[in-house]
């Protein structure tokens, strides 16, 4: 292993340790490493600062690896490397949360929230904008009412639907009609024109198969569920609810750029 790869491997081990242990435990390790008045080797002192046997073994493994591969690293430098990795992990957790959401049979002990609950929470909490992308849509009464209430309080609604005509039979019912004129009249509705879609050698075209919702560019729901009663209440569906971080803004911006460049049209 070359020097660059070796350093990267050591840094990866430090980062994994920061991911595995609470920040308070890592701070205890860092203080022990900095304790120049300790009677024993600072690394041994650092290992003794950890209470759990499993955590102690992980700390010892990382410190031994560093001692073998990079003995010139000072104890104070190592302490601040651990603090830096722990703080970076903490900032990431503060900025972004990811929750698994589910529709389908709920085994005993399951704590997963339903996808329709996550979507309703996202819509009801929106203050400025909502983007909904779906292949199929029928009128799901609770979701429809929540979207209409959002529009009434001034939230900008954007829908990206698969078009009944552009899909050439893949969608049998127009999603815009399904959502109703009152809601669609207060929304921006986009679709993917057939002439913008790639085709294979047999002339078959792709479908708008993405399903997601974004609120205020701050919360993102990505799932397998279409906006239908079957998907929300009867099917087995799986998804992720992301709050904070860069992903909600990235997804909203991506669809906006598709609108600007003409890939999606009114």
What's the CATH topology label of the largest domain? Endonuclease, Chain A
Order of helices and strands: HHHHHEEHEHEHHEEEHEH
Taking the sheet with the most strands, its summary is:
8 strands, mixed
CATH architectural category of the largest domain? 2-Layer Sandwich
Helices and strands, with pairings:
Blueprint: H1 3-20, H2 23-34, H3 42-48, H4 53-69, H5 75-95, E1 96-103, E2 113-114, H6 115-125, E3 129-134, H7 141-152, E4 156-161, H8 175-179, H9 181-184, E5 187-190, E6 212-215, E7 219-223, H10 229-234, E8 237-244, H11 247-260
Structural notes for this entry:
There is one protein chain. With 266 residues, this protein is α/β, with parallel strands linked by helices. It has 2 domains: 3-94, no CATH class; 104-260, 2-Layer Sandwich (Endonuclease, Chain A). Helices cover 48% and strands 16% of the residues. The protein contains 11 helices and 8 strands. It has an 8-stranded mixed β-sheet, sandwiched between helices. A hairpin with a 3-residue loop joins strand 6 (212-215) and strand 7. Helix 1 packs across helix 5 (75-95), helix 3 (42-48) packs antiparallel against helix 4 (53-69) and helix 6 (115-125) packs parallel to helix 7 (141-152). The radius of gyration is 26 Å and the shape is elongated. The N and C termini lie far apart (55 Å). The model has no long low-confidence stretch (mean pLDDT 86).
Which characteristics define this entry?
alpha/beta, 2 domains, 11 helices, eight-stranded mixed β-sheet, Endonuclease, Chain A, 266 residues, single chain
